[in-house]
């Protein structure tokens, strides 16, 4: 087994964004640390990577992101206080985040887009395929998208991106993929990509969402990719070059996701994600759903 065909074990989580849509809450707190029920959003993302078999996680951070490192580190004073109280349940939850995976951190420095953030991971990743998980997209653990993408990459080689069908009038918010069908209902071959196109120019309503499994050849392409939309180095532009020449890094496939996805990058969707997940919790759901029904009835 060559290094580039090795079992995928590394995940990259870009987390250098400023979170301006959530100001003033994110003035001193990283947006990735905003709670979704009782866990920060970033922990759901790391848990997803671990569930897919990726035990090595690199976070690409920036200024004011130290709380991310602290969250995935041990807090001995808190652990000792909980232990003295005999609060084993909370102690286990506190220790859970520090035991999840082998965590690494690198600073992006000058934030020049998602492509640049991925490029910052090159020294750590080396010459092997790896996953990229964006923190704004939470995928329900009952819908193992990343594990399916890893399976497709290991079988087909090249790179695999996650796609979701959206309404045509929403495609301008995403990267859009031109695709060809394969013999599998949830797998397509990607023949082109456009970042945030006008609806009239979009090749399809297949939107690129925040999960990628990438061939390491992407690093060489990113080094040569000029800033694109918004003056940033776009990962979509680099992937487009891969679709143009398979000899560079193999084919690009897409896994069409039809499961449960929560967008925590938008305030309204963030609130909806909290409500949905709280309703489904065994410890919170029954009482919360009863209150929610009563509240909705009173407001109507």
Automatic annotation (TrEMBL):
Q: Which keywords label this protein?
A: Nucleotidyltransferase, Transferase
Q: Name one GO biological process term.
A: UDP-alpha-D-glucose metabolic process
E.C. code: 2.7.7.9
**Catalyzed reaction equations:** alpha-D-glucose 1-phosphate + UTP + H(+) = UDP-alpha-D-glucose + diphosphate
* Family annotation (SUPFAM superfamilies): Nucleotide-diphospho-sugar transferases
GO molecular function annotation: UTP:glucose-1-phosphate uridylyltransferase activity
| Nucleotidyl transferase domain sequence ranges | 10-275
Q: Which CDD domains match?
A: UGPase_prokaryotic
> Would you say which domain of life the source belongs to?
Bacteria
State the Pfam families in the record.
NTP_transferase
Output the Gene3D superfamilies linked to this UniProt entry: Spore Coat Polysaccharide Biosynthesis Protein SpsA, Chain A (3.90.550.10)
Q: Tell me which family the UniProt entry assigns to this protein.
A: Belongs to the UDPGP type 2 family.
What protein name is recorded for this chain? UTP--glucose-1-phosphate uridylyltransferase
Organism expressing this protein natively: Streptomyces albidoflavus
Instruction: Give the lineage.
Output: Bacteria, Bacillati, Actinomycetota, Actinomycetes, Kitasatosporales
- The gene designation is galU
């Amino acid at each position: 087994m060559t290094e580039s065909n090795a079992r995928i074990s590394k995940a990259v989580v870009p987390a250098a964004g400023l979170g301006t849509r959530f100001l003033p809450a994110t003035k001193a707190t990283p947006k990735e640390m905003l709670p979704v029920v009782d866990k920060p959003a970033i922990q759901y993302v790391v848990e997803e990577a671990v569930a897919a078999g990726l035990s090595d996680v690199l976070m690409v951070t920036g200024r004011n992101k130290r709380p991310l490192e602290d969250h995935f580190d041990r807090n001995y004073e808190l652990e000792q206080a909980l232990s003295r109280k005999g609060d084993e349940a909370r102690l286990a939850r506190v220790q859970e985040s520090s035991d999840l995976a082998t965590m690494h951190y690198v600073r992006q420095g000058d934030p020049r887009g998602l492509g640049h953030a991925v490029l910052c991971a090159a020294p750590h990743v080396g010459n092997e395929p790896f996953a990229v998980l964006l923190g704004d997209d939470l995928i329900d653990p009952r819908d193992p998208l990343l594990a399916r993408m890893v399976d497709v990459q290991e079988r087909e080689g090249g790179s695999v991106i996650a796609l979701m069908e959206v309404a045509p009038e929403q495609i301008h918010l995403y990267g859009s993929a031109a695709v060809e069908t394969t013999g599998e209902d949830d797998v397509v071959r990607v023949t082109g990509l456009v970042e945030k196109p006008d609806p009239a120019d979009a090749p399809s309503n297949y939107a690129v969402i925040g999960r990628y499994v990438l061939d390491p050849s992407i690093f060489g392409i990113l080094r040569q990719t000029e800033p694109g939309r918004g003056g940033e180095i776009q990962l979509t532009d680099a992937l487009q070059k891969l679709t143009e020449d398979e000899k560079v890094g193999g084919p690009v496939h897409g896994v069409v996701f039809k499961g449960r996805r929560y967008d925590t990058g938008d305030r309204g969707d963030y609130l909806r994600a909290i409500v949905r997940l709280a309703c489904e919790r065994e410890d919170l759901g029954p009482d919360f759903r009863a209150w929610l029904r009563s509240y909705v009835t009173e407001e109507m």
